[in-house]
Amino acid sequence: MARETILVVEDEKDIQELIRFNLERDGYQVILADSAEAARKQLARHTPALLLLDLMLPGESGFDFCRKLRADEQTRNLPVIMATARDEDADIVAGLEVGADDYVTKPFSPRVLLARVRAVLRRRTPEAEDSVDRLVRGSIEIDRTRHSVKVADQAVALTLSEFRILDLLLRRPGVVFSRYQIVDAVHGADYPVTDRSVDVQIVGLRRKLGEHSELVETVRGIGYRFRVEGD
């Protein structure tokens, strides 16, 4: 039986068929659209679990389409993976900043594409740890009820923003969060905080983590993630 439905917005027929073949082989139901306009019509008929969006579309670009999806109450939380033939940091960051959850660069292998799809769908599914008040990752322990953090069994005092950033990263180890996503998770949507402010908070957090500061990794041009010790 088919699993989640994925809407693929891609104007190149060969790539469309390649993506459809691999997604269907992995058990997904696939709907195709070759433009933003066609995608809107499909969204009016179906509610997919995920949207795979090419950025270089005829007419309205994938960037603009994604931005409008995030502004619409009906599609605000729809998971989006952007696909781009350009792998420059600026293009990737721009896609993440308008609301994409992840990205793949062309040409991509089917294994990479499927891995990204599974990861985003898992990320959008509430995990048991989201409701856990106490969480331990290696040498770091965080307690939501007491608003406390211990590093190697030593209490560490964090600001509210630093605490929320650490909580976000610890609950999704290995997941890369853009600065935009960090601001949204920590302060709420449309909060007037600059990218530089996030960087400053990360610097403060790392300083307080001491010799374990390298666990908060910078992903160049994109954002930050938490690395599990031993990886």
Instruction: Round the Cα radius of gyration to an integer and report it.
Output: 19 Å
Q: What is the CATH T-level topology of the largest domain?
A: Rossmann fold
**What is the percentage of strand-forming residues?**
15-25%
- SS class: alpha/beta
Any guess at the CATH architecture of the largest domain? 3-Layer(aba) Sandwich
CATH class of the largest domain: Alpha Beta
**Ends apart, CA distance between termini:** 36 Å
Helix content: 25-40%
Listing every helix as H and every strand as E from the N terminus to the C terminus, the arrangement reads EHEHEHEHEHEEEEHEHHEE
Main-sheet strand order equals 2-1-3-4-5
Biggest sheet statistics: 5 strands, parallel
Helix run count: 8
How many runs of DSSP E, i.e. beta strands?
A: 12
